[in-house]
Amino acid sequence: MASQSSPKLWDRLLELYTVVCLIDAQGRLTAVSPLLERVFGSEAVGSLLNNLFEFKRPAGFDGSYNAGMKNLGQLVLGHNSEKGFALRGQLHDYSSFGLDGLCLIGVPWLWWMQENNPDHGLGFSDFPILDIQMDQLFFASAQQTMVADLEKLNDQLQLAQQKIKEEGERRQRFFGHVSHEMRTPLNGVISALTLIKDGQFDDRTSTFIRLAAHSANRLLEIINFSLDTVNPQLDSISEDEEPFSMDSLIDDCLAVTQARALEKGLNLHRVGTQNFATKFIGHPRLLKQVLINLLGNAVKFTDEGDVTLSAVAMDTEDTDGCSIEFRVEDQGPGIPKDMQRQIFEPFATGVTQQTQKAGGTGLGLNIAKRCVESMGGHLSVKSEQGQGAVFRFNVILSVLSDSDYQQLMGEAESQASASLRGAVLLVDNEEEDLSLNEQILASLGLAVETATSGVGAVECVKGKTFDLVLMDLDMPEMDGFETTEAIRRLPDRDGLPIVALSAHTDASTKQRVIGAGMQGFLEKPILSDRLLSQLTEWVELQVDDPSSLPETDDRQINSEDPFFVSEIIERMKRDVGADIVTALVAKFLSESAVRWDSLQTALANDDLPVVAREAHTLGSSCFTFGLQRAGSRFRKLEAEAQNAQALTVDIELLAADLGEGISGLEMSVDGL
Predict the structure, then answer these.
(1) What secondary structure does DSSP assign to 15-70, as a single string?
(2) Is 553 exposed, middle or buried (0-12, 13-18, 19+ CB in 10 A)?
(3) Is the pLDDT score of 121 beyond 70?
């Protein structure tokens, strides 16, 4: 305790310093400040100073009274390692002011404690208000707090980043699954419609089939664009340039949305009097996607009144192109100002209280925006709430002369009427897809073999030579990548063209395809109207002119050709199963009878286009089911009809060959 003769001085020292103690002549402490009592306990009073501290300075100071009197005013540095405490101060003699003994005054030695006891637990109250060490402690504490806060914030950011990454991966897996699940049934629908659309039906049935095929293809385009939009790995949507008629394109877009407009009692029409006599080359699929999306939204959100589409040629400095401004205007409830920017973002529906019944996924406008931008344009909206909306965009299109347009369209038609020549191995574990796609490939003139597994594909390649392998990527046990690797290891098969076949169209899958050494990628479902041009990169395109066929072509009529090759049916049984083979044969026999009657009628009427078409289909089907000799005769008949030559094929012999082949085919499936 402090000397009773000078309580005011002692109290003043405690206000100015936090380390204060009185030392008597024997070197014992007679009074200590609260900080020292807190550190050393109540037993500090009465203890020898040199038992509490080991002193570093001044030199030779041992904590005794006499040594202290010799070092008055000197810097004192001492520490207690056990307690993790150190002091920094001076020795003074205040006996003349009424304090008995030697007085040590100072503050905690912060540097030593930071180095030796970082968890010292000192606070601001343990330092004098004006002491510079308190400032150091403040900054050190603030620094530690900031570092801790930054580390905590960094942890939170890393956690949020990880969650975003996981959400993105889940989204990609979801849309990858959606892609496969949606495209797989569409493959069957489109392939089946492709196979039957050339059949002989009454006008009503043909119209229904055509509408179904159109709708299925539109649905596939929507799925493709939707999946492209939500795929962050894709920077743009790309399409090959094609020649097209603007008037026909606009009419098609209006026709797609006309039914819904009529159902709601809306007037859907094109405004303005301009018709486009010129033809263009550009991206008609993208342009159609944009217009159908905009018209569809306009019809969806409008309950009464008009929905109009205009397309007007604008002046442009581009001498090689023509700028077309498109406007889609509706008389719906309009779009609030605060929503007009976000409606172009993915999954933003723009739904208000007035439009919430319309629903929607919120992808349409984002898809439209991306399509317009990929064509070099900009999509904008102008709208007032309650006064409808106007969507506007410009694109610059290259103009085609009539002669260039006719030439390009003629080349397309010529290619469409051509066929392919080559042996193809089709690998797919989906039996329905396998049989339908086999028919489509055969209808293009290809000799098709199939395998339902990776192991089966490798065995086929071991024993036979193919011009091309179409490889499904998604197969159990041994997927398309593993199968490709196994084929590449076979002798003399490292250069065999292998093309991936998959409903997964994301960039990572296509990159894996390239890395696996495959030559290309085809999307499921196979679309026959574009397949021919795609396959010509790997197999030979031929126009069916007999003079262009080599004399050694194995599809020339040869008296040694067998009527029926039973191995083909046996192979089909192994690959797809007896039940499916029986169903396919029954379908072939039924359709062949109808087509044979149609061929007979066309021959009687000298209708060469129909003769060529029916002979082509019958010939391809015959080769598919092993009717070798009949297939050769049909192929020759098709070529002569296409080139308007005199028909030299003996129809009676053709009928006999067909009958013999069918007999062999029926015998091969008896008892299945």
Answers:
(1) HH-SEEEEE-TTSBEEEE-HHHHHHH-GGGTTSBHHHH-EEEESTT--S-HHHHHH
(2) middle
(3) yes
- Among 144, 177, 186, which residue's Cα sits nearest to residue 524? 186
The torsion region of residue 107 among left (phi > 0), alpha (psi -120 to 50) and beta comes to: beta
E runs forming strands in 498-649: 498-502, 520-523, 540-542
Q: Does residue 425 surpass a pLDDT of 70? A: yes
Task: Provide the pairing of β-strand 102-108 with 19-23.
Answer: antiparallel
In the chain, the amino acid numbered 651 is I
b/e per residue 254-269 (b: at least 16 CB within 10 A): bebbbeebeeeebebe
Instruction: For 513-558, write each residue's pLDDT tens digit.
Output: 888 888 888 877 666 555 766 677 777 765 444 333 333 333 344 4
The position carrying tokens 């109290």 is 11
| Cα–Cα dist 159/170, whole Å | 16
| Neighbour count for residue 118 (Cβ, 10 Å) | 10
Buried b (16+ CB within 10 A) or exposed e, 388-405: bbbbbbbbbbebbeeeeb
Alpha-carbon gap, residue 94 to 654, rounded angstroms? 135
- The pLDDT of residue 518 is 86
Give CA–CA dist 545/211, Å, rounded: 34
564-569 long-range contacts, Cβ below 8 Å, gap at least 24?
564/626, 564/627, 564/628, 564/660, 564/661, 564/663, 564/664, 564/665, 564/668, 565/626, 565/628, 566/626, 566/664, 566/668, 567/626, 568/624, 568/625, 568/626, 569/625, 569/626, 569/665, 569/668, 569/669
What's the rounded Cα separation, in Å, for the pair 19 and 105?
6
Chain segment 556-586, per-residue pLDDT in tens: 444 556 788 887 777 667 655 677 678 778 8
Superfamily of domain 246-412: Histidine kinase-like ATPase, C-terminal domain (3.30.565.10)
**What's the CA gap between 90 and 288, in Å, rounded?**
91
What's the token pair of residue 562?
A: 């067998």
Cα-to-chain-centroid distance, residue 630: 47
Q: What is the pLDDT of residues 428-463, one digit of tens each?
A: 887 767 777 787 788 777 888 999 899 999 999 988
CA 368 from chain centre, in angstroms, equals: 17
C-alpha to C-alpha distance for 344 and 549, rounded to whole angstroms: 55
Tell me the whole-structure pTM to 2 decimals.
0.41
Domain ranges of the chain: 7-130, 246-412, 556-672
Residue-wise DSSP of 512-531: HHHHTT-SEEEESSP-HHHH
3-class state of residue 8 by DSSP: helix
Phi, psi of 515, rounded to the nearest 5 degrees: -65, -25
Asked if 473 contacts 432 with a C-beta cutoff of 8 angstroms, the reply is no
Residue 432 backbone phi and psi in degrees, to 5: -65, -45
Task: Pull the structure tokens for residue 230.
Answer: 């939500």
Length in residues, the chain: 672
Identify the DSSP state of 311. E
List of residues 6+ apart from 146 with CB closer than 8 A: none
Residue 89 β-bridge partners:
76, 106
7-130 belongs to CATH 3.40.50.360: no
CATH topology of domain 556-672: Four Helix Bundle (Hemerythrin (Met), subunit A) (1.20.120)
Q: Which residues contact 583 (CB under 8 A, 6 or more apart)?
A: none
